[in-house]
Write the structure tokens for this entry.
Amino acid sequence: MTEPGVGSDVINMASTARREGDVYILNGEKMWISLATKAHNFLVVAKTDPSAGHRGLTAFIVTSDMKGVKTGDIHGKLGVRAGSTGWVAMENVEVPVANRLGEDGEGFKIAMAALDNGRYTVGAGAVGLIRACLEDSITYAKERRTFGKPIADHQLIKQKIGYMQQWYDAASLLIYKAGWMKNMGMRNTRETGMAKWYATDMSVQAALEAVQIHGAYGFSDEYPVERYLRNSKGAVIYEGTSEIHQLMQADYALNYRQDGNLRCELPAYDPEYWQSEPVEA
């Protein structure tokens, strides 16, 4: 599904949901779904009113054991090979009205609210990847010697490491800011989008520099930096591409985009509720 731009109401979605009495009949296929063959519950957004644009979408909880639901794995990914990614197909799946999430026509808002959480985890993961690139590059640069001294003493290697440190510090602060806002129960769509955009873009750059520092070894699987590069590339695509985030942040700056209140806001973090120790009955 594409996110509509200013003045646009085009939804690139083929999945449909038609109400018949106490059930909705769902048809369609969703690709590039995390844990598609592992999860039991799916959040599915489908068109209930194809003529209403993004206002004609509705969200549902679909379970893998419903008749007509099929799933499969996607193989041959460039990176994130340890993560399960697949597809979910629905053919005349009867979904009870009770499984509708929110009201008819609220699917787009629900999907966008879900992205605030998905984008945060992707951005946080990218921060960790930058740190891994930085730490591995520092270790290798101190061990690898050329012209009688560690390559860490060469100015251009220092430049690469200096940039990685800058990217890590800035990405961390953006993620921490968005996380703090989440804990406070504050709307954080802009801040989470900015953190995801910056952290993922910089994770690719950090991985490229890490491979360069490792030289020929960086081009092999003898060191993990080649895996860092493969893994980093996916994150600038999923949960909103870098290009769409760039446009979103520009719209925020130009005051073309403003976030309204959600009908159901996520609550602030409550330490008495989220306890690490199990509560005795």
Remarks:
- Confidence is low (pLDDT under 50) at residues 1-8.
- The two ends are 44 Å apart (CA to CA).
